[in-house]
Amino acid sequence: MRILILGSGAREHAIVKSLLSEDESHEVFVAPGNAGIARETPVVDIDPLDPVAVADFAVERAVELVVVGPEAPLIAGVADPLRERGIAVFGPGKAAAQLEGSKAFAKRIMDEAGVPTGRAVRAATLAEAEAALDEYGAPYVVKADGLAAGKGVLVTPDRGAALAHATRWLEHGAVLVEEFLDGPEVSLFLLSDGHEVLPLSPAQDYKRLLDGDAGPNTGGMGAYSPLPWLPGTFVDEVVETIALPTVRRLEAEQTPFIGLLYCGLVVTASGVKVIEFNARFGDPETQVVLARLTTPLSRLMLAAATGGLAGLPRPEFASEVAVTVVLASEGYPEKPITGRPLAGLDAAEAVPGVWVDHAATEVGTLPDDGLHGSWTAESLIATGGRVLSVVALGSDFAEARERAYDAIGKIHLEGGQYRTDIAARVAR
Ligand code: AMP
Ligand code: GLY
Predict the structure, then answer these.
(1) pLDDT at position 374 over 80
(2) Which residues line the pocket of ligand 1, CB cutoff 6 A?
């Protein structure tokens, strides 16, 4: 199949690897990709936010499937003009992508579909926000209503900090004040063709920057899959009580959700509840979920994009477990320092069961300042906050963790940061 993937992160690299590992050979293009992706498949310099450029390329190259990786192009509505030109797209149109783009929209859909979630109030003024904070009590949860790249959410026991966060984000629009949901978090991805859904394997993401879940929220610092502590009925429960009602509600509103429904869930004492929906694969969870997927991903995504999930068996997964640890630049998430050389990736990938999914990497030319020792003129450079994901498979979590940390220890990035406790609780 000829497939075009939009995006440039480790999630997209993981998707590429999955597609290229299938028995059937595919021609895979990525726009714009990164240095790691470019080593494996052609990258094209097209802005994923430009629907005309994307559609022109897809038509010219007879692309049979476009996969939209990140949320920004989905929320901007890039999928719609592609579909209008007859191209199969894995990714919802602008209307259904509001499930991720607007927390207020997501809450309305959940209310109407009877999907379990925390109580929430949309506040347009500080007085409204304050009343809601006092109604729900501590810990306080305040969210910007819109895309804020992970910075819009504050969970805090400090009422003053909650009010300050509300004040700050009220300048940009409404805020949502939510009831705190207590329990372990789970990310479950489901393929959706607008009517039917098929679940992938659950994963857990580590959202905070530092060990022990300290520090600020990030895009995600690591993940593992599967989750051995979940009850066997978990996936069926999410399909029946959360994913299907949501997808059917959007279908009834004539805004079908076609693509990847990311359910961000909390297992509370009173059942599984939704914290958030996303309209695309999660990063870094995708790196561990696809690492274990044995059903061809291309077939699943094409079936979802063309209304063909009905009657397909559930996707299958290897019995091995997967762990991923994210390497981030110094200063991430507030102010990442970029442009620094990156080395040791070959040594990392020489560890058994390990590979590296690139995120913010470029092949660049380093200044000849004599400081870089054996660096060749053309070197790998870190160009963003989350730089790469080290992924390790193992027969159990102790083995996968050991491999992942052995490998990431071989990678050199000045000021690079990573958590040391990813999957520690399941390895014991
Ligand atoms: P979100 O961007 O909505 O996923 O929020 C980011 C993170 O904040 C989540 O992964 C949770 O760890 C935390 N969080 C958000 N909403 C709640 C909530 N209602 N109760 C508890 N924790 C929450
Ligand atoms: N890992 C969280 C996300 O992709 O939104």
Answers:
(1) no
(2) 118, 141, 143, 153, 155, 178, 180-181, 185, 207, 217, 264, 275-276
**180, 136 Cβ separation under 8 angstroms:** yes
Amino acid in the structure at residue 308: G
For 331-378, what is the HEC assignment? CCCCCCCCCEEEECHHHHHCCCCEEEEECCEEEEECCCCCCCCCCCCE
Domain co-membership, 273 together with 386 = no
Q: If you search the block for the tokens 């077939």, which residue do you land on?
A: 299
CA distances from 23 to 15, 110, 288, 297, 315 (A): 15, 40, 20, 11, 16
CA-nearest residue, atom 13 of ligand 1: 155
Cβ(157)–Cβ(138) below 8 Å? yes
Each residue's pLDDT tens digit, 179-211 = 999 999 999 999 999 999 999 999 999 999 999
Question: Any idea what the CATH number is for the domain that residue 301 is in?
Answer: 3.30.470.20
pLDDT surpasses 60 at 87: yes
Domain that residue 80 falls in: 2-90
Nearest atom, ligand 1, residue 264 CA: 4
At residue 375, the pLDDT reads: 47
**Residue 318, token pair as written in the block:** 């290897």
Residue 154 has pLDDT above 70, yes or no: yes
* Least distant ligand from the CA of 275: 1
Q: Percent helix, strand, coil in the chain (nearest 5)?
A: 30, 30, 40
Does ligand 2 come within 6 angstroms of the Cβ of 283?
yes
DSSP 236-249: HHHIIIIIHHHHHH
Q: Judge whether 220 lies within some domain.
A: yes
Angle 148-158-154 from CA coordinates, rounded to 5°: 15
pTM: 0.94
Quote the ligand 1 centre to 275 CA distance (angstroms).
6
For the CA of 205, the nearest ligand = 2
Residue 109 resides in a domain: no
Give the chain's domain count.
4
